[in-house]
Design brief:
Blueprint lengths: L6 E6 L4 E7 L9 E6 L5 H4 L1 H14 L1 E6 L16 H18 L4 E6 L1 H10 L6 E7 L5 H25 L13 H6 L4 E3 L2 E3 L1 H8 L11 E8 L7 H12 L4 E7 L13 H11 L1
Parallel strand pairs: 3-4, 3-5, 5-6, 6-9, 9-10
Antiparallel strand pairs: 1-2, 2-4, 7-8
Helix pairs in contact: 2-9, 5-7
Length: 281
């Protein structure tokens, strides 16, 4: 059964508006509740749009209404990325939850990808209404580790530029004494990485996040992407065991597939779509 076509709209927010897509089940289906998608960080948002759309349609075919929102300064929403702040993103999600509550009967779930999963976990125990579950697609748990990986792209870009300069007989060492991105952020200077201007305030908020602490008071569906078949890695297994010992209702499923959020081309991971859909069916 196929749901209705996605409805695009702009949700009034503060400041500005947020671009949204709303997926609904077919009228003859029994409604099963609502799911709010929390997108990943930076360019990973754009690389993941196709996968997010396909999974949203699959959820709608099961009877769920799905809202996808571009957070402040991201995608087609108001604001520049340089003005984005973690607390504004959380406020956007609360606004989206309230919008869904007014329009969709039944339980509410959060579904986050990568840093979006960490944002979903950060919101989960402070959501405006109790949650049925949190769906984690290859979640990021340590904000600092994820931000370090993001900042390395600037290093790689500068190394590439230095090689080009050397090939052109220019001064390849001109940038050798430049401060690192971490130093600039610590000095209160925004840094540009892969076309995204990262503010020190947002970087500091991400650095402080650790999603591996107390699990949310709802069911957890965690899908961990694997390069090969087999069990999840030891770090994921330890965290899963810790959460279960704390009383979490956790399902951890390994999925073999490509990291579509970081690929050069737009790619799909059909096993992830199938596993997620089956878990909720």
């Amino acid at each position: 059964m196929i749901g209705l076509p996605a409805v695009p709209f702009f949700l009034p927010a503060s400041p500005g508006e947020r671009y949204c897509l709303f997926y609904q089940p077919a009228p003859e289906q029994t409604p099963r509740g609502a799911i709010l998608y929390v997108h990943p960080f930076g360019e990973e948002l754009n690389k993941s749009r196709r996968m997010a759309a396909q999974q949203a349609r699959a959820f709608a075919a099961l009877g769920y209404s799905v809202l996808q929102i571009d957070l402040y300064g991201c995608g087609d929403s108001s604001g520049d990325f340089a003005s984005a702040r973690w607390h504004i993103w959380k406020r956007d999600l609360v606004l989206a939850c309230e919008w869904l509550t007014r329009r969709v009967a039944g339980p509410l779930s959060l579904w986050g990808l990568r840093l979006g999963a960490l944002l979903a976990l950060d919101l989960a125990n402070r959501a405006p209404r109790p949650l049925e579950r949190v769906i984690l697609w290859h979640p990021v748990f340590k904000g600092k580790t994820h931000l370090d990986q993001f900042l390395r792209m600037r290093v790689a870009s500068r190394m590439l530029a230095a090689n080009v300069d050397a090939h052109n007989d220019n001064d390849a060492d001109a940038d050798a004494g430049a401060p690192s991105a971490r130093q600039e952020l610590a000095a209160g200077i925004a840094v540009e990485v892969a076309g995204y201007l990262l503010a020190p305030e947002l970087a500091a908020a991400i650095d402080a996040l650790d999603g591996g602490g107390q699990p949310p008071h709802c069911a957890l569906l965690w899908l961990e992407m694997m390069a090969n078949d087999g069990a999840v890695g030891p770090a994921a297994a330890r965290l899963a065991a810790s959460w279960r010992s704390a009383g979490a209702a956790l399902t951890l499923l390994p999925v073999r597939g490509q990291a579509f959020w970081s690929s050069t081309e737009i790619v799909e991971c059909q096993p992830l779509l199938a596993t997620t859909t089956t878990a909720l069916a």
